[in-house]
Amino acid sequence: MFVHALDIPGESVRRRVLELLADGERTSGPMADVIRAESGLSQPGVSQHLRVLRDSGFASVRTEGVRRFYVVEPAPLSEVDACLDRFRRFWEHASTPWKPSRPGRACDSESGRWGAYATGPPGCRCGQDRSIMKGT
């Protein structure tokens, strides 16, 4: 369940389509134009991503003549929210000062690597020392 819920919106084009649909119902043509302009993906490529979103339940479509109107479906996004709920504490308490559990180890949030730092670098939002988990 965890992997599936995050796999679909985890792909950049599908995530962008969901962002566009977050503003309301849209037809496939203008969405394909936006995606093509931003990523160079062809209209058939965009259609394939729309199909994945539709088949996975993240979006639904209604046909009106030759036009296809897409809309976001809330249930799968609720599933994504539930998956992320376990990690919510990392960003909800990010405004509190960071204190490493083992002094001298911290997350470099820009590179995503763990290394030796006297204190957590600016912008570190991890809230914990993961060097223990890496065995370093």
Detailed description of the structure:
By secondary structure, the protein is an alpha+beta fold. Helix content is 47%, strand content 16%. The chain is built from 7 helices and 5 strands, in the order ααβααββααββα. The chain has helices at 2-10, 12-21, 28-39, 43-55, 74-85, 89-92, 131-134; strands at residues 26-27, 59-64, 67-72, 105-108, 113-116. The chain has a 3-stranded antiparallel beta sheet with strand order 1-3-2. A hairpin with a 2-residue loop joins strand 2 (59-64) and strand 3 (67-72). It is globular, with a radius of gyration of 20 Å.
Descriptive keywords:
136 residues; disordered C terminus; three-stranded antiparallel beta sheet; 7 helices; two-stranded antiparallel ribbon; globular; single chain; alpha+beta
Give the SSE order as H and E letters.
HHEHHEEHHEEH
Q: Structural class from helices and strands?
A: alpha+beta
Q: Estimate the strand proportion.
A: 15-25%
Gross morphology is globular
- How much is the average pLDDT? 75
List the helices and strands and how they pair.
Layout: H1 2-10, H2 12-21, E1 26-27, H3 28-39, H4 43-55, E2 59-64, E3 67-72, H5 74-85, H6 89-92, E4 105-108, E5 113-116, H7 131-134
Helix pairs in contact: 3-4
Describe, in short, the structure shown:
By secondary structure, the chain is an alpha+beta fold. It has helices at residues 2-10, 12-21, 28-39, 43-55, 74-85, 89-92, 131-134, and strands at residues 26-27, 59-64, 67-72, 105-108, 113-116.
